[in-house]
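ESCALATION

Customer reports they have been waiting on this structure for their group meeting. Please prioritize. Original submission:
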Amino acid sequence: MTENALAAVAAKSSLVLSRPPRTILVACTRRIGDVLLATPLVRSLKARWPEAQIDMLVFRGTEGVLENNPDLRRVIVISQRAPLRERLADIARIWRRYDLACAAVSSDRPRFYSWFAGRQRVGLVDDDRVTRLKRFLLDGIALNYHTAAHTVESSLEVARVLGIEPIAEVVPPGIGEDPARRAAFEARFSDVAGQPLAVLHPAPMFAYKRWRVEGWADLVRWLRARGFAVAMSGGPAAAEREYAQQVAAEAGGTLLNFVGQFSLGESAELFRRAKIFVGPDTGATHMAAATGTPTVALFGPSDPVRWGPWPKAWPAGSNPWPLVGSGRRGNVYLVQGEAACVPCMQEGCERHVESASQCLVTLSTERVIGAMTQMLALSMPGAFAEGEAGGTTAIVDTSALGPLGGQH
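Update from on-call: job pushed to the front of the queue and completed.
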């Protein structure tokens, strides 16, 4: 950033409100994981101004991750690729209706919606992309250090610009307190009543984040041998259903296949009742971590500094994950593939979303089971010995993270 740009940002680095806002809009028009990881900002705003009515504006298809969020009055859903007439209608229904609007992610669309909606605006701007237009749109600029800060920490910069205490609590969705809905949900587990539950999420949206079918089947068999009922979670896309069916066929035996059957709120409830969750770099893994369930996250090309699951109760002000290394932070164990290029931050070895990532494909079952064993020692004390993987020595790399068991 040039010296002049730095000076311009410094002049707009904070926003002092003349009175507490009565209405607040948080714009987060991106993917499910981005929306979920913006909920700490919403929680921070609500804690500072408990009487304020907070709405969130998101793309259609991501609103489920906000189901029964207690900090929100309503969720405004817009189409990602809407015709001009529909976009103008979206603008008309939010035009200057909010005392404060916050762009929770660093992209043009949430900044424009914030400008349309808010009488005062604050938002994220990449530290190397500050322009006159962005300074015009925003009354307060929160710098997004997108190459060095976790996504949660980035969104919380908006809170800091407003002079309020950041609360780094990711708020997962849920199904609420409706007795009929809860009863119907619980009935799905009647056949495995009394058994501890493990949840596997084998299929992310994109192939380059996948592990391998045989590895997932190995985990199913290992868990079954130790008395677990095993459930699979996943989205409704045909590719996710097909991949889950491959895992089920390879594993054989009884398996609760919930792929494509649950809403995001129901999926979060599934994760809450589990003794352990295992998944790749995907929104479901972020949700599982946010519920407090012991979570094993399988990472390959993705940047863990930016996208590692945020552990429950992890404090604001520090990134949980280094760039390279496997180990535990709180209720999350991140297992990273091993190669000199990891993490390459590319979309697979062939640089497109449907290509494989060899660092994930070659990730050994023993390493994953070793991490699972340590996490099960947390949720089932006495039932599992740390570092023991059922007759197999666990490979545990904690050199980059310090002592296991620490929250900080």
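Sent to customer with the following note: The first helix runs from residue 3 to 11.
Escalation resolved.
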